[in-house]
Amino acid sequence: MSVDEEYNAFCSRYFEEDNESTISNSSDDDLELGYDTLDLSNVDENEAERVTEFLSNDCCINKCHTLIPRKMIEETRNNCLELSKGELDLVILSHIESGLKCTKNLADFYETVAKRKKYGVKKDKDPERRKIEFTFYRVPICRSFFLFLHACGRRRYESLVQHFCSNGATVRIHGLANKPSTKSFQPADIQKAVQFIQCTSDLLALPLPGRLPKFKDYRVMKLPSNETKSSIYRKYIATLTDGEPKMSNRSFRRIWNKYIPYVTVMKPADDLCDVCRGNTLSIAQAKNVPDIEREQKLNQFLDHLHKAKNQRAYYQSWCGNTDDTTTVLSFDFAQTVHYPVSPQQPGSAYFKATMKCAVFGITDEKRKVQYNYLIDEKDTVGKGPNCVASILHYHLETYYSDIATLVLFCDNCVGQNKNNTVLSYLQWRVDRGLNKTILFNFLLTGHTKFAPDRYFGIFKAKYAVSNIDTYDELLQCVVDSSPGGYNKSVSAENVTWYEWDSFLKPFYKLLVGITQFHHFIIGTDCVKTKKFADSEDFETFRLLRQPILGKMPPVIQPPGLSLDRQWYIYNNLRSLVSDTKNADILAPLPQKKLPAQKQKEMVPAQKEKEKVPAQKRKGEVPAQKRKGKVESAVASTAEPKFKAAPKKVTPMRRSTRSRINTYN
Question: Which residues fall in a compositionally biased region of kind Basic residues (predicted)?
Fold first, then answer.
C-alpha cells in the first residue's frame, strides 16, 4: 500500500465513517424522541455562511480543507470563539511550539528530514523557508486553513510568532500595562480632592447610628440625603482656579471610592430611633465644645446602644428556649392593607377609599409560625387595648390552653400593648389559673424589629403582586405567601370582642409609671417589674383590689359599616373588581336606601354632572336668579357684552392721610 492510500484509509477510518454514523444515529434518535429543531441565531447563521464561503474556495494547492469534515471545522471554530483572548493565544502558541520545524539545536535533523518525500509533495530544498509545520489531529494542513480553524487573523498570528521567539509560550502582556497613564493626575491633585471630601464630611456628615448589627467600621460617615456625589463634585470644581487641572465626575468618583470609601450618602429611612438620631446630631454638632462635654455625649450614646444590645440579646435568648412547659410569643400590628387591589392599578382607584383590613400577627418563636388575624372594616372595634386583649384571649384559649409559663414580647406602643388594660388582663389570666406565670417584655423604643416584622414582610411581598377582590382572597393571600406554611391566616369573625377596659378596672389598680418599665413578671400575688434586662433590682406591686369573679366581661358588637359607607362601596368599588363574579361579594346592594339628599350626593354620575358648568351641558340652559325671580337665559350666537362694575372707592381715614403726608 502506498503512502497516499494509507493516508486516505486513515482519514476514512477516523473522520468520515465516524461522523456519518454519529450524524445518522443522532438524527434517527431525534426523530424517534420527537425533539423539536431549534432555529439558528444570527451569529450562528453568519458563522455558517463564513464556513461555507471558505470551503467553496481552495485554501492552497493541496486543498487541505477537503481532508477535514465540515462538522469538525465548525466545532473547532466555535470552541476557539468561546475562548477568551488570552486563552486562545496560549492555544495558538502551543501549536506554534509543537509545529516549530527549525531551531538552532535541531538544524541538522531538519536538514535530513527535508530531503525526504512526504505525501507526494516535492522535497524541501531550503529547510529555512518554512519554519512551522501546521497539523490538525496529526494531519498536515496549510497555514491559511490553520488560521481559519482557530479563528485567528494573519496580523495576530505574526505578532504571536514574534512573541514566541522572544518570550516563549507565555501570556502576552500589553505594553502599557502597569504603567501610569499620560493623562493621570498628579498626587497633589488627588490629595486636594481627598481633603475636600474629608472637609465636607466633617462639616455635613453624621456618624453611623447604631442600627446595623455586626458592623464594626466606626469610621463610616453619612452625608445628608439631600447631597449626592455629583453635588459634592460640583462644589469641588467651583473651588478650583483657572490654572488648576479639573478632573471629570467619573475620575472624582473613582478617587472617592478608592481613598475614602467610608464616606457615603445617607439613604432616606423611617422608623429610626429618636434617641440615636438625637445623640448622633448632638455629637456631630459638638465640634467646638470642650472635650469633657463631648465625651459625656459620646458616653450617653454608647449607654443607649448598650441597653439596646442587651434588650436584643435577652429577646434572642428566649427565642432559643426549648422548654416544653414554656411558650414564647411575639405579637404586633402591621400596616393596614386595602382591597380590592391589583398590581395593574387603574388611575381611578387612587382617588377611591377601598376596604380597609387591619393585620395583627402572633408569632410562635419556637415553632417559627405566625398567625395573622385579619380584621375587616366591618368587624373592627379599633386598635386599642380591647382589641389586643380579645385577640390574645382567643388565641391563647384556642392554641395554648395548657401552658404553665407564658413569655410575651411586643413593642412599646402605649395605646395598644403597653397599658394597664393589657397588664390587668394578663394578671386576670394568672388569677383565674389559666397560666402560672407570665413574663411580659417590651423591646427598647426605636429598636423594635423582631420576628413578626419578618413574616409581615413575606406577606407584603405576595400582597404587592396579587389580584385581591374580596376578604376571602386576602386570607388566602396570607397562606400563599409562604409555601412552607409559616404564615397562617385567621379571620377576625371568629374572635369574640370583650370590653376588658371597663371590666377590669374595679378589680385591679393602675400601675403608675408603667412606661418606664420594660419587663414584667406576673404572678398570683404581685407583679415584679424591671426597667431593663440587665437591671438587678426588682420593684414589686400589688395591683389586686378585690377577688376575681367567675364571669366574663361584656361582649362588644362591632358597629359594622354605616349606610353611607355601604352605598359608597356599592357605587364606587364594583368597577375595581378584576373578576365580575366577586362584585356582589365585595359590594352587595344595601338593604336600605339613603335619604333623597344623600342619595344625590352618593351617585357618581350626579357628582360628575355637577362638576361640569351649566353652560357646557348639552340641551341645558342655565337658570339665573335676579331679585328673587327665576329667569331663563336665551341662547344666542352673539357674544354677550359684560359691563364692568364701577370700583367702589373707600375713603381713607384721617390718620392714614396724615401719615402719608408726613412721609412725603
Answer: 644-657
Helix (H) or strand (E) holding 653: none
**Amino acid residing at 327:** T
Kind and range of the H or E run holding 223: strand 221-223
Q: Distance between CA 561 and CA 101 in Å, rounded?
A: 97
Contact (CB, 8 A) for 564 and 603: no
Residues shown for the chain: 664
Total-model pTM: 0.60
How far apart CA 433 and CA 524 sit, in angstroms, is 9
- Residues 303, 305, 307, 313, Cα dihedral to 10°: -150
Instruction: For residue 256, report the phi and psi dihedrals to the nearest 5 degrees.
Output: -60, -50
Angle at 86 between CA 83 and CA 90, to 5 degrees: 90
pLDDT by residue (tens digit) across 507-566?
998 888 888 899 999 988 889 999 988 888 888 898 888 887 778 899 999 989 999 999
Model pLDDT for residues 292-331, shown as the tens digit of each residue: 777 777 788 888 888 888 888 899 899 888 788 899 999 9
Report yes or no: 364 and 374 within 8 Å, Cβ to Cβ: no
Separation CA 278–CA 124 (nearest Å): 91
Q: How far apart are CA 169 and CA 99, in angstroms?
A: 13
Q: Give the separation between CA 215 and CA 222, rounded to whole angstroms.
A: 14
CB atoms within 10 A of CB 395: 18
Mean pLDDT by groups of 10 residues along the chain of 664 residues: 55 52 47 50 83 88 87 91 91 86 53 51 49 84 91 90 87 81 82 92 71 59 85 92 87 93 79 72 68 78 84 89 87 92 85 92 93 94 90 94 90 77 92 92 86 92 92 94 92 93 90 88 90 86 83 90 91 89 90 72 49 43 41 39 44 42 39
Report the distance separating Cα 616 and Cα 638, nearest Å.
Answer: 16
C-alpha cell read off for 306? 448598650
Local structure of 432: helix, strand or coil: coil
Cell of 112: 535530513
Phi and psi at 339, nearest 5°, equal -155, 155
Q: What gap in Å lies between CA 384 and CA 401, rounded to an integer? A: 24
How far is 133 from 95, CA to CA, in rounded Å?
Answer: 9
Q: How far apart are CA 373 and CA 489, in angstroms?
A: 6
Contact 354, 339 (CB under 8 A): yes
Nearest to 531, CA basis, from 444, 655, 468, 599:
444
Q: Which residue has the cell 350626593?
A: 601
